[in-house]
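Good morning N.,

You mentioned wanting to compare the apo and holo forms, so I went ahead and generated the holo version with S-adenosylmethionine. This is what I fed in:
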Amino acid sequence: MSSLTARSFRLQSLRQLIKPNSFKRDHSTSIVTSTVSNDNGRLRIEEEKYADIYSSSIQQPYKDVLESLAKRTENEFSNANMMITSLQGKLMCQLIKLFRPRNVLEIGGFTGYSAIAMGSGLPSKAKLTSLELNEKHAKMAEEYIRLAKLQNKIEIKVGPASER
Ligand SMILES: C[S@@+](CC[C@H](N)C(=O)[O-])C[C@H]1O[C@@H](n2cnc3c(N)ncnc32)[C@H](O)[C@@H]1O
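and this is what came out, ligand included:
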């Protein structure tokens, strides 16, 4: 195949991928020729679709707790853009459900979004430890972990991760 033909084949494949409802299970990111970012420049759009379609929704009461935590983080922290997106949370929860780890170590918990998203999918006896440098971040994380009734599964340790 000439390089021109190969390029138009890849472009066609890309167009197929980004058409609504045309996503195929055998999707390979290797045919994605360029990075197509969403408005936050985070996960590539094709990967977002994949994550969305093949991840189950975060269950209640965790979903509501996460929504409320995200709103409060956005209102109270000027650096709220550090928080993962709801889709990233959904994907992390799905990965936890797939791998069923007994222990999870998170470095940099911020206000607890990812910890709660992962915690919501943890098997019953599993534990997640989240290391967070900033006391104010950790305090909010702890508040929402309690609201989500995940305090027996998630522990926040405050201080520099390198000292743990
Ligand atoms: C990008 S945010 C993490 C986002 C978070 N996982 C979430 O779901 O919202 C990075 C966090 O790492 C923390 N951090 C930075 N340096 C650290 C260190 N040395 N030890 C522990 N936490 C640290 C910051 O205070 C910040 O809250």
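The radius of gyration is 19 Å.

Happy to go through it together on a call whenever suits you.

Best,
F.
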